[in-house]
Amino acid sequence: MSVQVEKRTFTVAEYERMGEAGILSEDDRVELVEGEIINMSPIGERHAACVDALAELLRELLGRTVNIRVQNPIWLDDYSEPQPDIAILKRREDFYRHAHPRPEDVLLLIEVSDSTLEYDRQIKLPLYARAGVPEVWIINLVEEVIETHSQPSGDAYQTAGRFARGEVVQSSAVEALRVEASFVLG
Description:
Elements: H1 12-20, E1 30-33, E2 36-39, H2 45-62, E3 66-70, E4 86-90, E5 106-113, H3 117-131, E6 135-140, E7 145-153, E8 156-164, E9 168-170, E10 178-180, H4 181-185
Parallel strand pairs: 5-6
Antiparallel strand pairs: 1-2, 3-4, 4-5, 6-7, 7-8, 9-10
């Protein structure tokens, strides 16, 4: 006998109400992906150091020309509100105070990946492409490379690159963003 299980998916509005009601707290490491509440992996030392160093470098390079968010939500659609490690957004003086940024506000999303590498590649990257996010970097700490993805079409990116230590990564969406892979990889 087979058992049929029906999953309950949530909208972003329902997910945010869970936070307001105290069902989910700010300390819960979760994100909403395609209607499912996903537990995020604990952040290890190398991952945290990479995010911190990258955030500092981005603020130095880009100054006040953009908004930089670290591990904060991006509203992709009614069923997905992931929390990329870093989001480089179109500049708004209110810092998106009244609503989370949407895909049209995003210039570049960065995921730092160690234990979540396959999840970031197989789930989040297609999700970002479908939403029309123009560029995504995966800082691949496992293989010690930076994977770049641009020109979204459907659920994939048409252009991809891999940059190792000693190479320079140039963003296609943020002209002033040019970084040495060695610095980012630590």
